[in-house]
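Researcher: Please translate sequence to structure tokens.
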Amino acid sequence: MEDILQTTILLLGVALFAVAAYGDIKTHRIPNLLVVLVAILGVLRLIVIGDLNAVIQTVIASVIVLIVVFLLFWRNFVGGGDAKLIAATALLVGSHSLFDFLMVMSLCGLFVTIVVLVIQRSSVVVPSDEAPLPKSRLAFPYGVAIAGGGIVTLLFQPTLLG
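Model: Translation complete:
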């Protein structure tokens, strides 16, 4: 029964990440409700696992992640929704998969950055004999990278593979 509950939680997490990625592409926003639902799934998963050591380690790791991403938000390196989603995802993937999540998220972020830069570069119109128009600040839908990292990490969790 525990495996069924964990698998259900992980698949719901995958679905929420897909919604987050789509929404971030369309609106450049990640709704608070979505972040709260990811965090709730993380708490439910910890309850289902029932291992006090795993709970303590995951909560401590998630608080550290929250502090780091808050500092990144404060310095305008990431958006507020991105910061909250990263912290909630840390709670859902657990401390044992946190490094994997951060690595995959970073690789997805690199891919998203390259795609946005290629799209931006190809959409710049240069009038003849004039300098290029000034570029506005690029908007990177980093929620896509967070969601990609979360989905890949969740899909390779032991309960889904076993």
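Researcher: Any highlights?
Model: Residues 72 and 122 are 30 Å apart (CA to CA).
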